[in-house]
Amino acid sequence: MDDCGRVSKCFVILFNIVIAIVGFVMLALGLWLRFSSQTQGFFDIDLNTKQFVIGVTVLIALGIILLILAVLGHCGACSGSKGALTAYASLLGVLAGVFIAAGVLAYINSHEVGRQLAEFYKTVYLQYLNKGDPGLAATLKLFNNALDCCGIGVPLEALIQDTCPKKDFISLFTTASCPNAIQTLFDTNAPLVLGCFIGISIVMVFTSFCSCILSAAISRSLSSAFNAYTRIPAMPPAQYGSVPYGV
């Protein structure tokens, strides 16, 4: 294998390690969000839309796909399987297109996504006030501590103080409401999200290109080895000396 093939092989292996780690983390996070007692309240809420449930399902599915992708890349790079490399490059190209489309959609609909998530928080908030369910309390804590916010900006906040970040009494009056914090988060970070999706897609396309180079290098290497094995060396004709008659 030539130097270009070796460099491509190293890059594919390094990228596979990153893919395997990310896929494992996404799968573990998705399973935790789906089955943990601390987040089970998400799935017990009666909503007209199921964005969170769909999001968790997509997270689990994407984690599984990334792990499969890492296995294909490992088999292709380490075992020299051209079929695995072809499938790996094709799947990477498809995922790159999906990531670009997802980034563009997230950028265009960032305000709507933020609004829906804010409505989701309000639903959790109101159902917690009605039921006092521990699962819903854990759900509120996740939002409140992650965004450093509390409630929806009404006098009822005193009833959910146990789910809010621990602050002094005066700071409680200056803490932002969570629907506003959620909306601001999505509105201000939409370009950053788009940039992340496009950056990941570029890396995927480059890795797919490297896998194609590696596949070609493997083909050349196998072809050279086959020719060397089947080549029959030219033997000089036998030199027969004349034998004297009667000897």
Fold and architecture overview:
The protein has 247 residues and is an all-alpha fold. 72% of the residues lie in helices and 0% in strands. The protein has helices spanning 3-35, 51-79, 82-108, 110-131, 134-147, 178-188, 190-230. It starts with a helix and ends in a 17-residue tail after the last helix. The mean pLDDT is 76.
Mean pLDDT: 76
Helix content: over 70%
Write down the secondary-structure element order: HHHHHHH
* Large-scale geometry: elongated
Number of helices: 7
Task: Profile the largest sheet.
Answer: none
Radius of gyration: 30 Å
Please provide the count of β strands.
0
Structural class: mainly alpha
Low-confidence stretches: none
How much of the polypeptide forms β-strand, as a percent range?
under 5%
Distance between the termini: 59 Å
Provide a brief overview of the structure.
This protein is an all-alpha fold. The chain contains seven helices and no strands.
